Amino acid sequence: MNYFYIFLALLGGAILPYQATVNASLAQISGNPIFAAIISFIVGTLALVVFGLSSSIPWPSISKMALVPWWLWTGGFCGAFIVFSAIVAAPKIGTAALFAFIICGQMVGSLVFDHFGWFGLAIHPINWMRVIGATLLILGAILIRNS
Q1: Which residues, including other chains, have CB under 8 Å from residue 36's CB and lie 6 or more apart?
Q2: Where does 56-94 have alpha helices with state H?
Q3: What value does the mean pLDDT of the chain take?
Q4: Residues 100-141: pLDDT tens digits?
Q5: Could you give the CA distance from residue 24 to residue 36 in angstroms, rounded to a whole number?
Q6: Closest C-alpha among 112, 75, 90, 107 to residue 25
Q7: Which of 45, 48, 87, 89 is deepest in the core (most CB within 10 A)?
């Protein structure tokens, strides 16, 4: 097991409440959650451009990218929706409840994607153990929200 990637995932997860808080504060000060999301994506895009230009990772050709199916371009829309929903929800329900419910949504969505093998994933059928695990996550989120 490569512990570096586990650490990277944990660090990324730990930074998410900070991101939601900063973006929600920017939305509150500016009075506009869409503006806050735009600023978040501009800063993130600039950081990725600097990282991409300074790394030795080769860029794909335009002709190669032209062959990409349309639905593979929707990831940016998903990211924008996630950031916007966090900006709007964090001040109302708190970051702990926000991310508890985000994790629940991820789990339910993942169970469906795995069960049907959507988008080239290996099929992992829903079973009672997975349903119990997801139910416990949902109950945990409800406990966090109602505490």
Answers
A1: 23, 24, 26, 27, 30, 87
A2: 62-65, 75-93
A3: 94
A4: 999 999 999 999 999 999 988 999 999 999 999 999 999 999
A5: 7
A6: 90
A7: 87
